[in-house]
Amino acid sequence: MTTVDPDALVERLRAMCLALPEVTEKVSHGSPSWFVRRMFVSWVGRHHGDPYLSLWAAAPEGAQAEMVAAEPARFFVPPYVGHRGWLGMRLDAEPGGPDWDEVAEVVTDAYRHIAPRRLVALLG
Questions:
Q1: Which pLDDT value is given to residue 26?
Q2: What pLDDT does residue 1 have?
Q3: pLDDT score for 93
Q4: Distances in Å between the alpha carbon of 11 and those of 14, 60, 69?
Q5: What is the DSSP string of 100-120?
Q6: Where are the domains of the chain?
Q7: How do residues 75-97 score in pLDDT, each as one tens digit?
Q8: Contact present, 24 and 32 (Cβ < 8 Å)
Q9: Beta strands in 58-116, from DSSP E residues, in sequence order
Q10: How far apart are CA 41 and CA 46, in angstroms?
Q11: How far apart are CA 17 and CA 19, in angstroms?
């Protein structure tokens, strides 16, 4: 496990989520989480003793299984919401931090999965 600043990860994730149309931030289960009517992404830093810094994101059908199978060191089935297809993504798996383009893709896919169609249309 590499040393990554959790506060810096949260700030970057926050900026990414809040840049999407009509997103709000609330604390859910003790963690910053982002909503577009319903939650679509949550920051999960060392949840219940878990040694990882990660995000949990709503995912389109099939994405969770595909990504976990392809890269199990970075992607996982999160507890509590994994049975609904949510995807866990470790943000501390790579030296120097995550691939932010890939994080943006996961966040945007989660948004597209949860947001109303009229808001998704604003993304182009």
A1: 97
A2: 45
A3: 84
A4: 5, 25, 29
A5: HHHHHHHHHHHHHHHS-HHHH
A6: 6-121
A7: 999 988 989 999 999 999 888 88
A8: no
A9: 75-76, 87-90
A10: 16
A11: 5
Query: How far is it, in rounded angstroms, from Cα 87 to Cα 102?
Result: 13
Residue 75 backbone dihedrals phi, psi, to 5 degrees: -115, 145
State in words which class domain 6-121 has: alpha beta
Can you tell me the distance from the alpha carbon of 25 to that of 7, in angstroms, rounded to the nearest whole number? 16
Map tokens 């604390």 to a residue: 27
Bridge-based pairing state of the strands 38-45 and 87-90: unpaired
Alpha carbon 22 to its chain centroid, in Å, reads 17
Tokens of 55: 């995000």
For tokens 């060392």, name the residue. Answer: 46
**2 pLDDT above the threshold of 70:** no
Asked if residue 9 has pLDDT above 70, the reply is yes
What is the percent of the chain where pLDDT is above 70? 96
